[in-house]
Every structure is written in structure tokens, then in C-alpha cells.
Amino acid sequence: MNINENDFRGVDLNLLITFLVLYRERSVSLAAQKLFLGQPAVSSALARLRALFDDALFIRTARGMQPTARADFLAQRFAPQFEQIQSILFNSDEFIPGASQRTFTLGMTDWVEIWLMPPLLKQLRTHAPAIRINVIATTPFEDPAFLEQHEVDMVVSVTSDQAPWLRREKLLSQEFLVLWHPRQLPLPAPLSLDNYLRYEHLLVTYRSRARSVADDMLAQQGMERRISYTTPHFSSLPGILQNTPVLTTVPQALAQAWMRNVAFCASPPPLALPGFDLSLLWHARNDADAGRRWLAGQISAIAGNNAAPRTAETKHLES
Hints:
The protein is built from eleven helices and twelve strands. It is of the alpha/beta class.
């Protein structure tokens, strides 16, 4: 922001409003009525404007006050700027989806993107075709920092951070499903613990720790599963499952999205894995942002339409 506050010292910006009303009304008395001021106050303001711009600005004629060339120039420059300021100050709650060309930046992991973005973009094409969505790959460990540093408008996350400025709307309660491809592993469902331990696993982890809550739970019982592949990306898993005899444990909503296109087998894990909540988060400074509120409503509606009931068998994200 290249504003030098020293340039404005001694300048009363209310004078510029008076100037614009005088330019529109071409009369001191009419301008005084519009401004709810006395005529002497407007005459005094005009004198100060003439001193400020070193120009007469308005010339009295038989047809009223006529602007000088300098006044025409100033009005053409000031009017659009003050209209924009007025809009910012007094129309901040106005958001027209069908006319908006705004870009919203959202943070999320790739599994959330796979689940959320197809129905969201379909919805936006109908109701807000000129809106642009910019997705940034984030993790639950980074999400609060992205919000605090103004890098995203909202995140869709499983983070449990409790920063005082963090706003949260719960979207889904989720559990996990174990997936495999029947062509690679002809296993019955529900999956037994013996089969869960017998075959190799794919693990998504956002940190270097190559184990998950499931591995910790198994270790407490003196058991261990074999993890043959770790990655920070869920998107690579369907191709591997279709070509390799392995198992993977993923969020329920993601599993259901994949199973609409690929004939995977699914089962609750043979462990009491804890579930998790997927939430929409934003910074408190954006509470009153009408555009953010509208988009949040669209996301919430999609989550409501895609919510799946939690089951007793399926119970924290494997990362």
C-alpha cells in the first residue's frame, strides 16, 4: 500500500464530499440542503477548496455555477473513488452470486478436494458461474497458520486447533473404511483381523511418522501390520489398489466417492478406530464477509447432502 500519510496532513476529506455535491448541484444553497449544512458553512468550504486546489473551481453565471476545467478534471477523478469507498463502507453485506467475479482461496487436503470439489463446482456453475475457486494443498497441521497469514479464505480440515480467533462449523462426522480391489484380494467383508494383518497396507501420512493410530492400537495388543507404502496423497491410492494386492484405510466419504467409479470392496476396520469431525474453518476477521458466508453455506449444504451415518463398527485419521 503506497500511501504517504504526510501528504494528507491539513486536508479535510469532507471538503471533497462538499466539492462533489457542489459539482452535482451547481448551487451553494442546494448543496447546503443536501449536506444538511448552513449556506455559510458551504460557502466557507468552497473558499477552502479554492485555496487547496488554487483554482476558482466554480464560476457564477446567469445559468448558475459553472465548473472550471480544473473542477471537471477533479470530479472525473474523485467521483469513482468516493463511489467505491461508499460501497465498501455501506454495502459490505451485499453479495450477488450470479454477478460476482470473486476468487475464493480454499485450503484442504487432497481427499477433501476429491470428495468436495466435484459437487461444489457443479453447484457454482449454476448459481455463481463467474466465481473462481483456487485450492491450496494444506494439512491439518498447517491450516491455522494459513488462515492467520491471510493465505486462504477458509479451510476444510480435521484440525483440532483451538486458537481464539478460529471459527469452526462442523460439516461431517466421519469414520473409516478399509478398501481393497476384489480382483487383487478376493476377501470376504467384513474384514477379519487375521486378514487385516496378513496383507500389506498403504498409509497416507502428512508427517514423517510411518505409522498411525491403528498401528499404535495394534502395538498395545502386541500385534503389527505391514505398511509397504506411505504417501501424503490419497489420490495415488485407487490406481495402486487396482493393480496391487494391498489394503488401505481411508475416510468414509472418500471411500464412497471412489466406489461410485471403481468396484472396490469395503469394510469397517477390525479395530475400534476413533472417528473424526471434518469442519469448515475461517478467521474471525472474516465473520462479516457476505461472500464467505454464502460460499460456506454452499459447502455446508453439500456436506449435509453427502453425510453418511456413523456405524458402531467403524471408528482418527491415519495421519
